[in-house]
Amino acid sequence: MSDRPVPAALLPDPDDPLALAEYAPGGAVALTDAERWPTLDAAGAARLDGVARHPLAPAWVHRTGDRLSADGIARAQAPLPVDGWLAEHLATARKLPAYRRVAATLGDLPSWPTVTREDLLDDVSAFVPLDADLDRMIEGSSSGTTGRALQIPDDVEEVARSFHLLVKLLADQGVQWRPDPGRMALAYVVHQRQAFTYTSSISSFGQATMARLNLHPSQWPATGQRTGFLLAQQPQVITGNPTSLAELLHPDLVAGLRPLALFSGAMALSLGLRRDLERAYGCPVIDVYGLHETRPIAASADGGPFVILDRRVHVEVLDAAGGPVPPGQRGEIVVTAGENPLLPLVRYRTGDFGRLVDVAGRPALADLEGREATRFLALDGSLVPSVDLTQQLQAGGARGWAVRQGVDGSVTATVVGGDAAQIGAALGRLLGQPVTVAAVPTLLDLGEGKPRRYESAAPGT
Amino acid sequence: MAEGPVPFWRRLTNSAGLRDPDRNETATNATPFSPPVDRVSRPAAAPEPAETKVVDSEALLDIWFAREQDDVIVWRSCLPGASAAEIATRLSLVPAAFLADDVDVLQLAENILEIEYGASGTTPPDRRRQEVLRIADQVRATGSAAARRGAALVLWLWASDDLNGPLSVPLSPVYYGRAIAALSFRLAAVVDPAEWVRTADRRDEAARTFLLWSGHLPAGEDEATARSILAMRDSLEQNTALAQTMAEQEHRLQVTKRLQEARAREAAARYSNE
To answer: Are A435 and A447 a contacting pair, CB within 8 Å?
Structure first.
């Protein structure tokens, strides 16, 4: 595949007042293909080219690879050992700049203070080990739905390893997922007004192809283009969030796609949508709970409690004061996460709430709150996913917010920080109606939980 | 600048708390080191507990680190300057009155900058003048005697041409703000400026630090040589506790820089929502 410039015709409408620069096609292209896929062979390159240049392919916004070397491939395919990981993890964390002044007081896990997203926003580098290999660092922005964008140092091999976690979760369901040269291995689908889209080769999975696709109709100008492309690729596995996965219920897609499994993440998957997807495709639907900061934490394959994954993750449920709640009681989910060597977190407050229960001898999270999938009703009757609002709120500089739509369709927003007038104008354009914006001084003024609230009582949302 | 010492001292004595000096009374020959002339007698200060000094040092270093100076870039942009010995000699000639406890460093800076820039400076020099005054005010606000003395010594280096003749390579006012901040907050945090005057090694360290942040390599030295010698002298790197603070600050800069670079260099492919 060659590095070619993006044709001007593919650029977004420069007069679009809601267009964000980072989503301009090719706006973040910086590497060569040899750097993106160091081991890519001719057959893999041909497969990748076949996807990228497919006549029905969307205009790719981005170009990105997994950057795995041959050694990195081997490491990414194997899960990190978990025996004794927590003690090792705490020893590493004790040396972090964030804990230098209190290191002497830190013993076993309960003696550690909790950490919040605000702490990472203040100085994420204090949570990066001094001896970390920064050459393996890639940048991930946790921006989806959880307040002001946070730049997260991700590890290139850990990101690649997350693919093999999906393979394992599927194997746990009795489904053997192996590379099929005739099919795309994975389609990661989103449904939002603007998004990074790309196609890539999975170096550690037979150089099979994958793509991040935006199912939003605006990205597929030709009639039948979206369905035609997906059917041509026949992705083995499709990942997404409830909003994007709901798009898969389109009859044309149900009739033609044959996925081995669907994975949902980021937001709560309702039981109704789960059942609809299971009926439509007759395959496992696995809901994965995790945060970008912590990486995947738990999974539910049946709509019941989320079983904590057998990896470097430890979950506690704490009360507001930071003490443990009685077994089975509701509290905030606090995670110690050791998969990402560049961000070894100890007792990270997720802002999500739930109960810690036992499922077949394994710890699990029940009644998980904080991941509600919300859509807003625009004046023209269309449904706008909350992520589109998130992009504009962040572009306006807000650090946190609560956006509510009443039964009558009226929308009010409460924001912390940022330019209220700019935000009001952008949300107004997005929803086709005036949006009242009020400013409050602190995140605490938004109440308990994550620094974002979306709620819509409008019909059909 | 004025021809002789009289106008110079007259200007300074008006508001900065300096008295007309005895030309022979330098800080070097005042023994033991202390302000040689206290106009108001005061009880001897109790020695500061070690913990207080560390806190004070860290507070000064915090101010320095907040400037996010990248010394790699500074080294790369240095031009040949005066020799370290020439600056060190100039330091040793500092009149003891400059280091007195009751010198108002902001007033001193205003007076010396007026001499340097003139009263009616044009816009660019005036901007730099304001920057220096802002830093002098920061020095005053810290309440740190070390920072105040450090700033006063830099002011002396700028003003000393009047008494000791011009340096072999003139200093550029462009970097005045950077230089006074470096010596007041970085070097003074770890070495009492009294030592810059009294001890040969520390005087050399101060001279080299001053040259670096003034944008100069010591005369006759290339970048590698100058870096090597200053690294050997650098008290901050040799102070274990404070070196840790510095290492963490450099780490912070590195992580921030690498995150920005990583963002510009593309993300990596991801496989699911989180």
So the answer is: no
- Global ipTM: 0.71
A298 bridge partner residues: A289, A308
Which sequence spans correspond to the domains of chain B? 5-17+52-264
Residue A322: what residue type?
G
| Predicted confidence (pLDDT) at residue B33 exceeds the cutoff of 70 | no
Show the tokens assigned to A80: 């990190």
More confident residue, B6 or B189: B189
Of B247, B248, B265, the CB nearest to A30: B265
Q: Are the CB atoms for A95 and A106 separated by under 8 Å?
A: no
Output the six-digit token pair for B208.
């080299």
Q: Which amino acid is at B196?
A: W
Spell out the domains of chain A, with CATH numbers in brackets. 1-372 (3.40.50.12780), 375-456 (3.30.300.30)
- Residue that has been written with the tokens 């999906």 in this structure: A166
Q: CA angle A374-A378-A384, nearest 5°? A: 40
Angstrom distance (rounded) from CA A307 to CA A316: 13
Q: Which residues of A touch B265 (CB under 8 A)?
A: 30-31
DSSP state for residue A104 in the 8-state scheme = G
Q: pTM to 2 decimals?
A: 0.67
What is the β-pairing status of strands A375-377 and A383-385? antiparallel
Contact residues, chain B, for A186 at CB < 8 Å: 271
Q: How near does any CA of chain B get to the CA of A31, in Å? A: 6
Q: Which residues of B touch A29 (CB under 8 A)?
A: 266
Helix, strand, or coil here: A159?
helix
**Is the separation of the CB atoms in A196 and A62 below 8 Å?**
yes
Query: A285, A278 in Cβ contact below 8 A?
Result: yes
Give the strand pairing for A198-202 and A208-214: antiparallel
Closest to A119 measured CA to CA, from A99, A103, A136 = A99
* Half-sphere exposure in the Cβ direction for A72 (13 Å, CA): 19
The string over B234-252, giving b where at least 16 C-beta atoms fall within 10 Å of a residue's C-beta and e elsewhere, is bbbeebeebeebbebbebb
**Residue type at A149 in one-letter notation:** A
Give B69-124 pLDDT, tens digit per residue.
Answer: 888 889 999 999 999 999 999 999 998 888 888 888 998 998 888 766 654 444 44
**DSSP class of residue A95?**
T
The pair of three-digit structure tokens given for residue A430, joined into one six-digit string: 């997005």
Nearest to A125 among B252, B265, B272 (CB): B252
What separation, in Å, do the N-terminal and C-terminal C-alpha atoms of chain B show? 66
AA identity, residue A303: G
Residue A338 CA to residue A383 CA, distance in Å, equals 38
